[in-house]
Amino acid sequence: MPVPAVNLKPCLDSTEPAWRAHLDDLFARSHFILGHHVRSLEAELAPAFQARHAITVGNGTAAIELSLRDAGITKPSQEVLTTALTAPFTGVAIATPGCRIRFADVDPDTLLLDPTDAANRATKRTAAIVPVHLYGQPVPLAPFRKLARECKAVLIQDACQAHGAQHNGKPLTAYGPYVCYSFYPTKNLGCLGDGGAIMTNSPAIAKRLLSRRDGGRRGGQIAYLPGINSRLDEMQACYLRAFLPHLDDWNNMRRRTAALYEEGLRDCPGVTLLRTSPESVRHLFVIRAQRRDRLRDHLTAHAIGTGIHYPAPLHLMPAFRDAGLRRGDLPHAERAVKEILSLPIYPYLPDSAAHEVIDAIRAYFK
Fold it and tell me: Is beta strand 196-200 parallel, antiparallel or unpaired with respect to 178-182?
């Protein structure tokens, strides 16, 4: 039986009555930008993520960019420290406001931003730190919060892969003023297009972000703040409102699949499992594999879909050449991208399919 890398249809089918009802209401209202369903979604998101305020935006990239702009980090003299192992959009979001991006290496056991390496690379110009909760695994936030205080920098969390995750039993908003999410379709909480949100506990930040996402306006035609045009579409809010009540259940389904993979691959020659915490929401299940590309071909031949998240570290991408790093400067990230492989994981993935993936991997290394 084919095992796709991701399959959205079961989630769509199980929630169809709710999103169809929302869409019917949307068309009846005929208010398609910043209307009833966006406002309702924001009111529902905040308590679901244990935040005081949720501000929806056009995508996760805009969520990070707007957070930087709101914090006043828009100058080339201001540096933003982040990981080199993440989606390019993290880097795009940092570069767009005009500040300078600075990369640090990852912990080879978790592939998360290494607090020690980050601290070694911080300078007097460090204005913000953007740790990424990669693959649904929360970054150890205490050392980054401490580093931010020492640098007098703002902590902006890229939680675009960590919907529903907590750290040490606390919501992510307990550690910093900006927590950024993406609602890209394959996320743990995704829509059927682009979407994003910023969670914060600050009423003042929330008020400014509501204006900044709408060109700096406050409901009229006067721009009061520097802003951008990044508003969540009402239609995507309809889907997200239908999906949100199922997020915890869907995350638990991901955890079940991840547990099967870990049990089946723990002693598999040629495979190294990442170290994770129980608080991971398992957006992706990533292994490190010897002969990764050949293994991927083997799985493809068995109709098993896989992915590589990500094929190159950001500091070696042409778009981020200005960061000033060369090959060899971040050895852990550079080695990891040659070994990482994302296995199929999504809600409603049958246990039998997970065992099929495990058997195919073990057969290859046998």
Answer: antiparallel
- Cβ-based neighbours of 150, under 8 Å, separated by 6 or more: 122
Domain boundaries, the chain: 9-245, 246-365
Give SS3 for 332. Answer: helix
- The one-letter code for the residue type at 226 is P
Q: What is the pLDDT of residues 310-343, one digit of tens each?
A: 999 999 999 999 999 999 999 999 999 999 999 9
| E strands present in 271-311 | 271-273, 285-289
Distance CA 172, CA 47 (A): 13
Rounded to an integer, what distance in angstroms lies between the CA atom of residue 179 and that of residue 258?
Answer: 25
Q: pLDDT, tens digit, for every residue of 87-134?
A: 999 999 999 999 999 999 999 999 999 999 999 999 999 999 999 999
Do 58 and 231 touch, CB atoms closer than 8 A?
A: yes
Angular region, 53: left φ>0, alpha ψ -120 to 50, beta rest: beta
Residues 246-365, CATH architecture: Alpha-Beta Complex (3.90)
Cα 178 → chain centroid: 14
Give start and end residues of each alpha helix (H) in 15-132. 16-29, 36-48, 60-70, 88-95, 115-121
Give the rounded distance of the alpha carbon of 38 from its chain centre.
Answer: 21
| Region label for 81, one of left (φ > 0), alpha (ψ between -120 and 50) or beta (otherwise) | beta
Architecture label for domain 9-245: 3-Layer(aba) Sandwich (3.40)
Amino acid in the structure at residue 286: V
Which uninterrupted H or E stretch holds 38? Answer: helix 36-48
Query: If residue 50 lies in a helix (H) or strand (E), which one and from where to where?
Result: none
Quote the CA–CA distance of 74 and 89 in Å, as a whole number: 17
> CB 312: neighbour CB atoms within 10 A?
15
Q: Which residue has the tokens 């929330």?
A: 206
Give the C-alpha separation, 227 to 28, whole Å.
Answer: 31
Give the pair of three-digit tokens for residue 183: 């609602």
pLDDT digit string, tens, across residues 14-70:
999 999 999 999 999 999 999 999 999 999 999 999 999 999 999 999 999 999 999
Sheet with 178-182: strands ordered across? 53-57, 196-200, 178-182, 154-158, 126-130, 79-83, 100-104
Among residues 342, 273, 346, 357, which one has the least CA distance to residue 309? Answer: 342
